[in-house]
Specification:
Blueprint lengths: L8 H33 L2 H9 L1 H27 L3 H28 L1 H7 L7 H13 L1 H16 L3 H25 L3 H24 L17 H35 L2 H37 L3 H28 L1 H6 L5 H14 L6 H13 L3 H27 L1 H28 L9
Length: about 450
């Protein structure tokens, strides 16, 4: 781990960023793969049914990141402070939390699955698809939590390449199983869900074999599984920021689906699902840069190497912004081609292409806001990160959705995203400058 405080930042950044980008993008590919195969192998209403599961999936992800992001940040900081025993204990506590919370969420959701999906906007045509998909996913939710959690641990403890390999293996397996289950075995949307669960469990096995090896600094020990109130509270305090982000995403997606059902119908919801999967793929590239930055920032902040910390932050902002700009240009140039990759239904293609043009208007601005929020999370300043997330998702996006939708109908739903992104960018610039100017080491070149 000493390389985090010694190697040139540019070399260090890319050695962490590239595996993180590939791995985080791979996670988003699950959504893209499922929608492409389901759209062509099952039908447009199945795509809409899949979109209706997104709010419930966001809750599951929120609970997972509450633990995983908090634990991985603490592990990076403890390793930077040379407190390896505390890093190991954090791993054990996080593992138990994944299992306990994952089981409770799956159990309760499985029991009330139908009323939950109806509350999210499911109709008689889309409910069967959403229910079939979600029941399978819930059965494997604990494996999914551990899979993503252990991936973050490997990345934060100095093994980004191995984390990337495990994630890629899982996605490639899903890519092979999904068409087999859908087109050959004719299992429909349940086949897509089963392929996802099997793939994530297989990736979990890869990560688990690493963490039981005592030759690695962070590994399982008998004593690491003793729950500690102090460690758990620290995990939750740092993990609260991404938890809030995903909880807000749950609220936003729910409101979006309900507004789209009211003003556009089932196919508008399906179009939203396609757009979210594409936007999610780009955001995961940006998030991959932020993930690559996180252990570098956390270690050098803990070691008080502030110049190195700022250099990593600047480089991350630059490449995240370039990614958003390229995605913006591509989405506005080829919206119909993007939509056609997911479905053959012309009505859904037209609705999706129109939504893409509006949704991506301010996409170049997203990178700075996301990286800045993740920066504060990486140094343990969870309150600032939470504030930035709340401003975008709750204070701006939800009110804009509720105000613009009755006036501009479906267009109001699509336009709410670029409006919130623009205003969030302004706040992120102000917050970063204000925080930086108050530091006693502010002479460090920004």
């Amino acid at each position: 781990m000493t390389k985090l405080g010694e190697q040139p930042i540019r070399k260090l950044f890319w050695s962490y960023a590239i595996p993180s980008i590939i791995a985080s993008t791979s996670t988003s590919l699950y959504n893209v793969i499922d929608r492409i195969f389901i759209g062509h192998g099952v039908g447009p209403y199945a795509i809409s049914g899949l979109a209706l599961t997104l709010p419930l999936m966001n809750i599951a992800v929120a609970l997972s990141t509450l633990i995983g992001t908090g634990a991985s940040s603490i592990i990076s900081i403890r390793l930077g402070e040379k407190q390896n025993d505390l890093a190991i204990k954090t791993l054990g506590n996080a593992t138990l939390l994944f299992i306990i919370i994952g089981f409770l969420f799956s159990f309760l959701s499985f029991i009330f699955i139908e009323p939950i999906l109806k509350a999210f906007g499911a109709s008689e045509l889309t409910l069967p698809y959403a229910k079939d998909f979600m029941q399978i996913i819930l059965c494997g939710n604990i494996f999914s939590n551990l899979f993503y959690g252990f991936y973050n641990v490997l990345r934060s403890s100095g093994y980004p390449t191995k984390a990337m390999r495990g994630m890629i293996f899982s996605v490639l397996l899903n890519l092979a199983l999904a068409p087999l289950f859908i087109f050959v075995f004719k299992w429909g949307i349940r086949g897509a869900a089963l392929a996802t669960v099997i793939s994530q469990f297989s990736g979990l096995v890869v990560f688990f074999t690493h963490l039981i090896d005592k030759n690695h600094v962070v590994h399982f020990t008998r004593h690491s599984f003793q729950l500690s109130r102090h460690i758990i509270s620290k995990i939750f305090s740092i993990g609260l920021s991404p938890f809030v982000v995903h909880t807000c995403a749950f609220l936003v997606v729910t409101v979006v689906n309900l507004q789209l059902k009211r003003y556009g119908g089932d196919f508008a919801i399906g179009a939203s699902g396609i757009i979210n999967s594409i936007a999610g793929l780009i955001l995961m590239i940006i998030f991959g840069f932020a993930q690559g930055m996180q252990p570098i920032i956390g270690y050098n902040y803990g070691a008080k190497l502030y110049q190195r910390m700022w250099e990593a932050y600047r480089m991350t902002v630059l490449w995240a912004s370039i990614t958003g700009l390229v995605a913006w240009a591509f989405a506005l140039t080829f919206p119909h081609a993007i939509a056609q990759a997911f479905t053959n239904d012309q009505d859904m293609i037209n609705q999706t292409a129109h939504g893409i043009r509006l949704y991506f208007l301010a996409f170049p601005l997203i990178g700075f806001q996301l990286v800045t929020s993740h920066f504060f999370l990486s140094i343990g300043k969870a309150r600032i990160s939470i504030m930035l997330s709340l401003f975008r998702q709750v204070i701006i996006l939800l009110p804009v959705l509720l105000i613009f939708s009755p006036i501009f109908k479906v267009n109001g739903v699509w336009l709410s995203e670029p409006i919130s992104s623009s205003m969030s960018m302004i706040l992120a610039v102000y917050v970063m400058y204000n925080w930086y100017s108050k530091q006693e080491w502010k002479t460090v070149r920004f």
